[in-house]
Amino acid sequence: MTRLALTVNGERHVIDVEARHTLADALRERCGKTGTNLGCEHGVCGACTVLVDGEPARACLLFAVQLEGKSIRTVEGLAQDGRLHELQRAFMEHHALQCGYCTPGFLMLAAWFIERYPQADDEQIRELVASNLCRCTGYQNIVRAIRAAADRRR
Q1: pLDDT tens track for 41-86
Q2: CATH 3.30.420.40 fits 2-77, yes or no
Q3: Any idea which architecture 86-153 has in CATH?
Q4: What residues are paired with 8 via a beta bridge?
Q5: Is 105 helix (H, G, I), strand (E, B) or coil?
Q6: Does the model's pTM come out above 0.90?
Q7: Do 1 and 16 form a contact (C-beta atoms < 8 A)?
C-alpha cells in the first residue's frame, strides 16, 4: 500500500492505495466520491471524466499514485452551498439525462468547456460531446443544456 494525499473538491484526503488502483477506484472506494462512474475502463466512454488540476481526465486511465498533491474536481464538487451548478440545472431543465450513468462525465467535461469557452457555438459543443458516450439521450438535449448553461455564464 502507498499513502498519498489528494485534494478532492477542495478537501484534502490522505489515503492508502495499492499501486494498481486507478484514480476512479481511489475516488470511489477511499474518498467516498461515488459520482465518478466506471463504464468501459478503457478511457473511451467518458463516464469517469473528472478535472485534474483544472483539465479533463479519464479517471479510469490514471493510477492514483500518479496524482499525489494534485487537485481533483468531481461531480460532487459542482454544487456549491446547496445550490446546483448551472450545468446541473440546465441538464434537468433540458432533459439531458435519462439513466444518468454517463451524466457525471458529461457534466465535468462541460464544466471545463464552458469555463474556458463560454462563447462556443453549437458545432463546437457537438464536437465536445462526441468524446463521451451516451446510449439514452441522442445528445441533442445534452447540447441544448450545455448551450443554456454557457449562455447563463455570459
Answers
A1: 999 999 999 999 999 999 999 999 999 999 999 999 999 999 999 9
A2: no
A3: Orthogonal Bundle (1.10)
A4: 11, 72
A5: helix
A6: yes
A7: yes
